[in-house]
Structures are given as structure tokens and as C-alpha cells.
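Long-time lurker. I teach an intro course on protein structure, and each term I like to show students one example going from raw sequence to a predicted 3D structure in C-alpha cell notation. This year I'd like something fresh instead of my usual example. Would anyone be willing to generate the C-alpha cells for the chain below so I can use it in lecture? Attribution to the forum is fine with me.
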Amino acid sequence: MTSSALGRDFRLLWSAAVSSRFGDALRTPALALLAATLTRDPRVIAAVTVAGQLPPLLFGLLGGVYADRWDRRRTMALVDGARAAVVAALAVAVALDRAGVAVLLVAAFLLAALGTLFDSASFALLPALVPPAALPRANGRLQAGTAVAGGFLGAPAAGVLFATAPALPFTLDAVTFAVAALLVLALAPTTAPAATEARRGSVWGEIAEGLRWLRAHRTLWRVTLLAAASNLAISGLLAVLVLYALDVLRVPPAGYGLFAASAILGGVAGALGAGRLAARLGTVPALCAVLAAQTVALTGFALARHPVPGGFALAVFAAGTVVWNSLWASYGQQHVPARLLGRVGAAQRMVGLLTAPVGAVLAGLVASAHGTVPVAGATAGTFALVTLAASWALRPASPADAPTSGGTAARPAPHPSR
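-- Reply from a regular --
Happy to contribute to a lecture. Here you go:
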């Protein structure tokens, strides 16, 4: 099935996601470069990064509630409009040389906080635009488009644009947000599921409802836990990847960008193949197969001592990661009741996010004491354990496995988001 076969609304959503991701790829490195021009204190520079990481943990579940209460199309458009205004204000401050560290911290925090609502709404909107059977392919196309826009187009251009004029990448990012908002507004109107219901509980009550539903669904809950365990290992590997590449694989510093691009290429290939894999094996068996393939790839990566086999193994692993994300999201979209999509999707992301900082900290401690090789080995070992756990946890179960309250409906991966 081609993108055109997925329909006009999907093409609009895909275009909005690609536009938004391109702007992100311009802004993120430019923000780091700007922070580095203001101070060389690593604590302050790290604080800018942390300011962008805290909101999903603080407000992620709240964003899921309002994504289920409000019209999702309008919510996404309003959020993108607000983010365009924030980045435009930042661009003006940079151009006028008024962008101090406090300004960067506030901008990073606001953009990430708005992003939690956008992510939940976009996750819940996709199933209203494409048929349930097409969700794996649609999610794959979204991830492929955003990977190309971010990795191959935006990221390489960010440094050049910042060197030309520090305000330029932020100005272009504001434009991409505005374009994305207009594209989302062009989607056919949809009805917010909550609008058809008389009930409206408290915010905490609605958060609890989404968490209870996720916990009660045998397969989705177990897949969420497996994803959290995987993220523990992935975040650890990413924390030391540059050191491992330079010191163990002997990647020349000038060639690190090319080495990192292998992961992007693998991710694009995986995104384009996700739909075919799900159609051939079924979504849950495909998830188990992906974990097994990633374990083999990580084992090869941990044993490699040359850039070429290391880059190839990294590409295969990245392909598996994108396939997993696409299929995991699609499975949820096909089984979660429409009125709960935002909350359940937010809960899934929250569980995954909780393990990431732990993995990064552990990897840093191990690498500082014993070097990066044990981190790569531990990552492969963790994935082997996760694969074994998946073979048991995701074995076929009776149809009665899913909660029956609320019915079922379709829905997406984490993204048209940034």
C-alpha cells in the first residue's frame, strides 16, 4: 500500500509530521550550540537538556487526559501554533542578543510541555484517518519520513544555518510549526470521543482509568514492560555510543557522522518494512522476531572491532527499533477504545521513559569504572533476556485477554510528534 493509498488525510498528517520533525532537527542542535556560546559550564548546558526532558515525566499523563477530552485535530493545530509562537519569540531574542540561559531553559521547558499534549493527541488521531489493518504501514511511513527529514536533511543543515546567523534555525523551526498547524487544520474534522459522553470525571480519575485499562490488558501491558526493559538497555548504549565508536570500533572523528548515519539508514529501512512484516507474521509474533534480530545485531556490535561491521550491526539494530515502535503503536491503536487512546498511549510512553535515565546513569558508572565494552555486552545480554521473556509473555492467549469495557477501536505510534 502506498502513501497515496492511505488517503488524503494521511498525506496531510504525514506532511505535517515531516515538516515538524525537520524543524526539530534544526532547533535541537542549534539550542545546544547557543547554550555553548553563552557558557562553558557543563552543568548549565546539561540543565537546558534536562529542561526538555522533564515535562514528559511531569505532564505526560495529564496530556493524555486532555487529548481524550478535546478535539484532537484542533488540539494538535493549537499546540503547533503555540510552539511556533514560542520558537519565534526565541528567534527574536537570539537576533537581538537577549537570549540568556534563563530564556533557553524556559523555551526548552515550554516546548517539551506543549509536546506532551501534542504527542498524546497525534497518537490518538491516526486510527481515525486510516483503516486498522493499515496502521502498521502508516506508522512505518510516518517514522520513515520523519527520520529522513530529521537525520538526513535537518541535522546536517543546523550547524551551517547557525554559523550563518544564530537566529536562522529557530526562525525556520517556527515556520515549520506554523506549516504543520495549517496542514493539521486541513484534515477532515473528527469528533472527540469524550464529546459523545455525558460523563466527565476528575483529571486524576481519568488518569487512573487509563492506567487501569492498560494494566488489565494482558498483551499490551506485557509489551509495555518489555519496551521499558529494552529502553533501559538502549539508553545505556546511546549514552556511551560515541566513546565506543571512537575508542573500540576505531571510527575516525571525521567519520563519526557517517557512522551515525548508518543507524538512520537502518531506521528508514525498518520503517518501510514494518507493514510487510506485520502482514506476514502478525503483529505480536513480529515483535518477538524483532527482539531476536536485535539481540543478534547487538551481539555482533559488542564483538565488532572495526567501523564497517559495527556500523552494519548498528543499522540492523536501529531497523529493529523502528519496526518495534511502529508495531507496538499499531497494536495499541487496534485494541484500545477510542475514548482512552490518549491516556493509554501516554501511560505507555511514561512507563518507557522511566527506565531511560536509569540506563544512562548505569552505563556512565560502568563505563567510567570498566570502559565501554562491558556496556555493549550488557546491552546485548539484556536484549537476550528480554527476548526470552517475550517468548513466554507474548505467547498466544485467548481472545478474552483484552478488557471488554468501552469496546475496541484503532489508533498510532508515537508520531507525527517531535
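Some talking points for your students: The two ends are 25 Å apart (CA to CA). Residues 4-202 form a domain with the Growth Hormone; Chain: A; fold (CATH 1.20.1250.20).
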